[in-house]
User: Fold this.
Amino acid sequence: MMNRRTGSAGFTLLEIMLAMLVLSMVVSMVSVTLSASIAAIDATREQGEIYYRAQVAMERISEDLASALLPPDVEFISTNDSNNEDILSFASMAHIVFDTENGRPGIGIIGYSLRPGEIDGQLLLLRSDVLYLPQEEREQGNGDVEAFLLCDRLRSVRFTFLDRNGEELEAWNSTVDEGDDTAQRLLPAAVSCRLEFWLNQEEESSISFETTVLLPVALIQPENDKEQ
Assistant:
């Protein structure tokens, strides 16, 4: 009677190598898909942060401009000079009291300025807010004005101005020559603000936000009044 030896069948070397090849392909595909998903999530989160920055900055700018005034000794002045860090200054009822114990509400002298960011090519938009005082008291002050960060990661900031006739201007200056009896100190009827944020500096990609703000005081200001 013959004895039969029974043995378990094993994998050949070729089968093991094929299995490892298939497994590596599956792992590679999963890694690529996962990396793309993570990149998409990061990009979405980053865009959400930019949208939040833009919303906060635009709300603040809109409130400042909508409450703009033109006192006798404070001018509405802007510049489109790219080398000038101070881009806009004016008086506004949107004064913010940071020090509730020593500060007081009233008209504020608002200033917007640009500064280089820590990363080359990025700009910071700063906002200063000083309580409007009589000229004598302002002259007695130390002249130091503290500015606070309004938003960062900016590629460019642009203000444009509309007069009562709807003409668009790149800059505005309410200052008039004292000897010119026909000149008028006027506010712009509306101001457009455009903020351009970097999305990816390496790819030169950016996203822009723009809003236009009407200035009610300018619309009701008599045309024959040179001072308010």
